[in-house]
Amino acid sequence: MSKPIQMERGVKYRDADKMALIPVKTVVTERQELLRKPEWMKIKLPADSTRIQGIKAAMRKNGLHSVCEEASCPNLSECFNHGTATFMILGAICTRRCPFCDVAHGRPIAPDANEPEKLAQTIADMALRYVVITSVDRDDLRDGGAQHFADCISAIRAKSPNIKIETLVPDFRGRMDRALEILTATPPDV
């Protein structure tokens, strides 16, 4: 029996490192032909990536994350080029290791207490009218991150009172009642 892997706090485990942590292994019995994407599914990169680089720079400036980048979304260039991004709060390391998801797995560090203010300022600087906020799963937090969502919503509304806010929250794994109690006090629009 192999010794369990000791994960370091704050280290992102991706690809083979992430998959090595899953106890069930897939054994390939025969080599199959590699399937290619049909032409209509292939995305053409824009000739001018100024807008894409601008959104990435705004994220980096305030230490923010987008699910677009962290999950390796194939539509990133299309969305960023149209000025759209989905912000991912509570860090870039998920406490779960779903094999279908490309977000890094590991032991996350404590949430950034300044993230709500940084997020609100970035959104105000980008002059957004609609924002989508999601997060990694944070099973290490007692409320699953619900209070952090509420703090982000409050900070955004303080800086951009006319904005519409959509949240894509995790399942809060067994803490749904507590999370809903927190989130109903500071609800998003969607």
UniProtKB/TrEMBL annotation:
Taking every annotated instance into account, which residue ranges of this chain make up the domain Radical SAM core? 80-190
Keywords carried by this UniProt record: 4Fe-4S, Iron, Iron-sulfur, Metal-binding, Transferase
Q: Which InterPro entries does the record cross-reference, listed alphabetically?
A: LIAS_N, Lipoyl_synth, rSAM, rSAM_sf
Please give the superkingdom of this protein's source. Answer: Bacteria
SUPFAM superfamilies from the entry? Radical SAM enzymes
Q: Which cofactor does it need?
A: [4Fe-4S] cluster
GO MF annotations, alphabetized? 4 iron, 4 sulfur cluster binding; lipoate synthase activity
The record's EC number reads 2.8.1.8
Q: Which Pfam families match?
A: LIAS_N, Radical_SAM
* Classification via HAMAP family: Lipoyl_synth
Q: What protein does this entry describe?
A: Lipoyl synthase
Query: What are the leading ranks of the lineage?
Result: Bacteria, Pseudomonadati, Pseudomonadota, Gammaproteobacteria, Enterobacterales
